[in-house]
From TrEMBL:
UniProt name for this protein: Nucleotide-diphospho-sugar transferase domain-containing protein
Annotated organism of origin: Gonium pectorale (Green alga)
Compositionally biased residues, Low complexity: 288-307
Signal peptide feature range: none
Entry superkingdom: Eukaryota
Length: 435
């Protein structure tokens, strides 16, 4: 009996000793997240962005559509990877799924394209809605998405491990910042299915088919613009704070990549100051906030500034071509954000739109990608309810602001309004009564 008691004691002590040494948290967590660092580790593992949930890639392949006219959505499946295709992608929690996504899908449903059955009715047209994957950030959001699927024919996917909150979280709440990291994870995973991705936030309204214009730009990556405070200005990119010797070690290689990229203007540098270091010094002095962006961004689009101020980056509507270079840039942007979040950086240093504006021109320039700012008259970014134009709030009224618009992003300054306030703006754009 004494021997059995001793053995039981040793086993108990051994088990509790192992438990004490076990990590406190194992990712992904299946509980509400506590801070931005947890959100970053929930999104990115040691292997990079976490792999998609079940059926995500199947849903992407099922709804992707070929650009060639006359082909039906979904024909270019995994056995036909040589056909260039596109997919529309968005993400929403339960509140956005109930309030905004129905309006987004309604607008997509109204954009009828020749060449296939419209929904399941066998008419002569199909709509952009059936080429759309809607990711629900919670299980309740997915259930709401599946109800919408019966009406619009979109695909639904779950992101139950994202840890995103169901409430109306506004910047600088870390849930709002974590949304950007989750968004990039889904873009990376969708690009691996060998399809171009048009990302749209849930507060976007389609007034026409944007893809002919997107293709005409020849862009590898394209984004919408907005005047301040609804856009982030281009800024010279710099890595998170590291040891000085580590930064200098990789400086020559990085400088060579930038100077050798397509479209980069070659400037003479002093013998004792490499180009990259000089750019960083100028950026620190505030003299070259758009140094990288000028080299990589399409000159014609950047010239379309308005009287209200220069155009800044807004990624509520963003296009990504399925190429290795684009995949690398989106992947690296997510790693850049997660590294800052895990290190405890404040929300404004991890916000996806601001990081995109700083990092993406740098990456596109290094890899020779064509980064294009979309024409603001066609891809419109509203900046608050007063900027609608339908009530004359925008310059020139509705005809001046939205008369030629193809897609409209009903956004607002960061943290100023929530999901409920965006709903009537979207309804007005669609001509629906605010009920």
């Amino acid at each position: 009996m004494l021997v059995l008691t001793c053995i039981a004691t040793l086993v108990y002590a051994s088990c509790h000793g192992e438990a004490a040494q076990a990590p406190v948290s194992k990712y992904p967590l299946f509980r509400p997240l506590l801070n931005l660092s947890e959100a970053a580790q929930q999104t990115v593992s040691r292997e990079g962005p976490r792999y998609p949930d079940a059926y995500f890639l199947d849903n992407i392949r099922a709804c992707r559509a070929p650009y060639a006219p006359g082909e039906h959505a979904g024909q270019a499946t995994s056995h036909d990877e040589c056909v260039r295709t596109y997919t529309i992608l968005t993400l929403a929690n339960t509140l956005a799924m109930n309030r905004l996504v129905p309006l987004l899908l309604e607008s997509l449903h109204r954009v009828e394209l020749p060449g296939g059955p419209h929904d399941t009715g066998g008419a002569a047209n199909r709509s952009l809605a059936i080429n759309t994957v809607v990711v629900g950030a919670t299980h309740e959001a997915v259930a709401a998405c599946k109800r919408l699927q019966q009406l619009y024919g979109n695909q639904c996917n779950t992101d139950g491990s994202s840890g995103l909150d169901d409430g109306d979280k506004r910047f600088p709440d870390f849930h709002a910042v974590a949304f950007g990291m989750s968004k990039l994870k889904h873009i990376v995973n969708a690009l691996t299915a060998n399809t171009d991705v048009l990302w749209v936030d849930a507060d976007v309204v389609f007034l026409g088919n944007p893809f002919p214009e997107l293709l005409a730009t020849g862009a590898d990556i394209a984004f919408t613009t907005a005047t301040a405070p609804c856009g982030s200005p281009a800024a010279a990119w710099s890595e998170p704070e590291e040891e000085e010797d580590e930064e200098e070690e990789g400086e020559k290689g990085e400088e060579a990549a930038i100077n050798g990229s397509a479209g980069e203007a070659q400037q003479p540098d002093s013998a004792d100051e490499p180009a990259l270091k000089r750019r960083r010094r100028l950026a620190d002095d505030g003299d070259a906030t758009a140094a990288d962006a000028t080299a990589a961004t399409d000159a014609n689009a950047s010239a379309e500034a308005t009287a209200s101020g220069p155009l800044n980056c807004n990624t509520g509507i963003a296009f990504f071509r399925s190429t290795p270079g684009v995949l690398r840039c989106v992947y690296s942007l997510l790693l850049d954000m997660s590294k800052r979040a895990i290190a405890g950086a404040p929300p404004d240093e991890v916000h996806e739109r601001a990081r995109f504006a700083a990092f993406m021109p740098h990456c596109a320039g290094a890899l020779g990608l064509r980064l294009v700012a979309l024409p603001p008259g066609r891809f419109v970014t509203l900046c608050g309810a007063g900027d609608r134009g339908a009530e004359g709030g925008g310059e020139g009224g509705q005809e001046g602001k939205l008369g030629s618009a193809v897609v409209v992003h009903a956004t607002a300054p960061l943290g100023s309004v929530g999901i409920r306030e965006k709903e009537p703006v979207m309804k007005e754009l669609l001509g629906l009564a605010d009920t």
